Amino acid sequence: MKYNNEIHKRRTFAIISHPDAGKTTLTEKFLLFGGAIQTAGAVKSNKIKKHATSDFMEIERQRGISVATSVMSFEYKNTLINLLDTPGHKDFAEDTYRTLTAVDSVILVVDSVNGVEEQTRRLMEVCRMRDTPVIVFINKMDRDGKNRFDLLEEIEKELNISLHPMTWPINSGKDFKGVYNLHDKNLLLFTANTKATDEDTVSISDLSLPVLDEKIGEKDAAILREDAELLEGVYGELPVPDYLSGKVAPVFFGSAINNFGVKEMLDTFIRIAPVPRPRPTSVRDIPPTDDKFSGFIFKIHANLDPKHRDRIAFLRVCSGKFERNKYFHHVRLDKDVRFSNPYTFMARDKDVIEEAFPGDVVGLFDTGNFKIGDTLTEGENFFFTGIPSFSPEIFKEVINKDPMKTKQLEKGLLQLTDEGVAQLFTQFGGNKKIIGCVGDLQFEVIQYRLLQEYGASCEFRAMPYYKACWITSADPKKLDDFTRFKSNNIATDKDGHLVYLAQSEWFLNTERSNNPDIEFHFTSEIHKEAV
Ligand code: G4P
Q: Which residues form the Tr-type G domain (predicted)?
């Protein structure tokens, strides 16, 4: 328990959303509150330009920037906040899913006009797999959005989570007058582009007081009174334990671009968001209060300089104290390693650090020692679990265009897929290399990087698969038979696990019902057999 104070100071989280819902804008407002940036617009550059959807040169340029904004640490009211960035582009969704394994909670931004969108759904699925506590921010209330009750119902139904309104909006669009804070019992009147210090808040302990009519007019006051009575009757106080177990999500309404309703959420966030949580490993749950250091790699980022294949591995500290120049145990490789230049991230600057505590993320220079999911400890042999690989959705065969560079191609494929943005499969009983990704853009990035960094040139040939399912069975003979009968659709992943490549949902369902002894998994635990 040596580091209790440090642990309790920290909150590590991510903001997630469907592209364009306002994640970047909200991130920026948080950083402004934390004093980590001084001007609006500072975070914008992190985004892959919307219109450059297939321009991988743009991505190359952005990669450098996104290393710097991968983790943004700032202090707010004596709380040390680590905000982990997630790529906005859907083709990098797998990276986002991985990052979610390194946070203790999330803020989900929903666009009040569009409601629940495709990425919102998927991101929430990942959060639910880990019971991650979620706070919902309904953004863009300055636009004519959906009816607030309908919106809540839609989110609850589509995301399968119970909501608990913390603030309540008074109209939307051009009639948007502000929000009533159901918890603090005050009225926050809407003004565009609010500064952190000059929010127009009116304390209204009793909604029947005439001051409410004065502030928002009789008609809206009457509606708010009715809504508030209904909400208080239905919801009451926020059940914080239910939030912490991922069952109930507090909801805030606001407008990120106008910095409206953001502070209310941030203040609640530091009050209720979980401190660094225990994490499951192959032997036991490791609480952050364990005196011995442990952590895992959740993201690997290639450096920009193609001549040096240096990478940056992002380590989430889970327990104890990480120290510069101290030897730690790399469990998978069974060797001791130390880091002379580990760094931490304060908004846009990188700083070499001497020590880090649970909840912190440390950037480690890596020359190829790390894979996603690797565990570092102070000597003990265990590995963190629950860092899954998800089924890719687009599959392409790799065609080697330069047989003289076969070795480089193979090495490049292995190393690039170690970064976790794409998965490499090998055709069963053959040699065909198949790359699976969640987005088309990844193929362009891989092709480009293979050439730039490894001097290997390749092409891709589309394959007619829609999902990869890891297959297991309690009956080895049944698994063997299935693998042989379906050999055209079978491949192995990098760890040698068997994978069934399904052409369509219909094929998948047919195989599942015809083969009740075979289990089909849509995610795979990385390095399950590492120890
Ligand atoms: P993302 O990271 O989730 O992809 O979204 P981002 O913050 O970039 O916001 C997407 C667009 O929505 C931006 O407009 C942004 O200005 C706008 N936006 C964010 N919050 C609000 C809000 O509360 N109200 C309104 N009306 N708009 C909001 P853009 O025109 O696409 O980009 P930009 O030219 O402003 O950079």
A: 8-279
